[in-house]
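Hello,

Our lab assistant flagged a job as stuck in the queue for most of the afternoon. It eventually completed. Since we weren't sure the result was trustworthy after the delay, we are filing this so someone can double-check. Below is the sequence as submitted and the structure that was eventually returned. Let us know if re-running is recommended.
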Amino acid sequence: AFSADTGMAESMIVATRGLAGTSTSVCVNLRCRPRDPFSAYATARAVSQGRAGTTILNTVEQVSMGDGAAGVMAAEVYRAAQALASGRLILPRARNDWRIPVTRLGNLAGRGKYHTAFMDGYAGAAFSTHALSEVQAVEYPMLWAHDCERERRFVVGPDRACRPLDRAKALDIWHNTASRLHSNRDFRINSQPLAMCLTPYPALGGRAWPNLTVKAPAYEIPLLLWANSLLGIMVFWLCGTRQQQGRVSIPISRLTELPVLDVRRLTKGGQQACQRLFEDLQDKDFLPANEAWRDDTRQELDWHLLTEVLKLDPRSTQQAGSQLHDGLDQLRLWWCNEPSVHGGENSRPH
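-- returned structure --
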């Protein structure tokens, strides 16, 4: 069933069963919707004849290879994001690329439970939830919902107080899942700044902010910095679903598959640089992620993450530093110009 009212991207696949290994696929992204049935017919015919990439009745098609390319306007952005997910930083007009240590998030952290597994109103409930007062003593705090105004900085306070319905279950869930690091499950990138956040003390993860339980405390801050840099957000965007413009979702069940910076491979100096960078930025506000092109705080994070934490800029020549800096600026503009990123908002680059 297709809906003309939801504004969500949907697809219908018509396939013929064949032998294993004999099928091929091509992803075709239309820059605009066909105006009428004749335009749609002409577009479909051009695609079937291998003429995608030409202009037909003001509809421009672009062929992109790979499953994750659906809904991506610029092939260069897709290639850059795909390279990042495999540990390579490819920047526009740079003479060479840079290697970045990348691993699956599951190698560094476990994921929390889906909220329906323990909240009131669902089978096996362990907690009921209530509004959190600033002066309230809370045994089981939770970060449940989004509030863009509260999420402009790395550290976001809990917004719910949980009361145990079954104390044994409540204790088990708390000790197995409560953490400071939380991941944004439905990332509204054209209004929300953070892909991950820290709570000031351990808290349960709710509908919007599931827990990430790191395997070592030293992983928290490097993961937080990576996730909120341009590079980390681009990988999140690539790996998530983009059915609604300006929003990216990664189900909790797939969260541990997300490619992230392999913080185990940071040098001691890199780990210390992470701590300094966090302390320098923790009191500064971020703009929504789609405004990375004009966000001074995020640009500061990007530059110091690459040059001080990862030491990608060899500093041996001025040219190398310029390539890194200018390439990052151009990549930001490209990514922020993607329709699935800005979602039609006026905050796109201009």
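-- support follow-up --
The delay was a queue issue, not a problem with the job. The result is valid. The mean pLDDT is 86. The first strand starts at residue 27 and ends at 30.
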